[in-house]
Amino acid sequence: MCSSDLGSRSPKDVLQNFKLIRDGQLTNAAILLFGRDPTQFFNNLQVHCFHFHGTEKRKPIASQQPYEGRIFEVIDEAVEFVLGKIDRSVGTHAMSTQAPVVYEIPRSVITEAIVNAVAHRNYCHNGFVQVIVFSDRVEVWNPGELPPGLTPERLREPHGPIPRNPLIAEPLFRVEYIQKAGTGTTDMIADCRRAGLPEPDFEQRGPHFVVTIWRDWLTTSVLAGCNLNDRQLRAIAHVKKTGAIANSEYQQLMGVAKRTAHRDLSALVEKELFVKIGTRGKGAHYKLQRKGP
Questions:
Q1: Would the pTM of this model clear 0.70, i.e. be above it?
Q2: Was domain 220-288 assigned CATH 1.10.10.10?
Q3: What's the 3-state SS for 169-184?
Q4: pLDDT at 98
């Protein structure tokens, strides 16, 4: 933590304020957050970052890097690893003296996924946090399970914070790495939609909790080769922003009959650009196909 965060308080005062000293001894959380070399006491602190050119874990590995040390440093290093592997665009100086950089996946989404994995993981588990960049997605693997009362489905709706490691979560909150409102995962969903990306996936895979952040594989060059009409292109842009579209909504937006909407949407499914959720009726809708064909 930087000196401006500490103010004039001594390190001991800061640790006591965060309840990181117990019976005169440093807690495990104190060592993980502020220890000079936490790996002397814990052998499972590494965050392993991998980059694969394809969509599967398969050699050769394009690049890999293990990071270890204080939690704050490990989070920052892992985030920068991902940002260095995904696409970016540089804006103009119109808004500031420094040209803004826009990443294909918002930095806030990547940071939230990695912070959650490091802050809420099970430190009694011998496994490591893994951050994997594929050509179509980024996966963050967290050793452990969701706290009781939370499910992957509940993460998609407003919920209260249930930190697995509250002594770690509090300092991260104080330096604005995480929020106490429990809005982190819903913010990730909203930020992905604003960036025109599919919503992230949250799932339990055996002993690991996995967050999947999908990259935008439906680029202009890909769509140019799909032989789509203007309505279908507009529908893809709409779903990138809103997350889904129903037949009735397609009719209204495009000014077409139900049969034409059905034909257009079915073609998008056949081309593996859309996936249909539900079979018929008001509950049926279409979302972006998450993986490229």
A1: yes
A2: yes
A3: HHHHHHCCCCCCCCCH
A4: 63
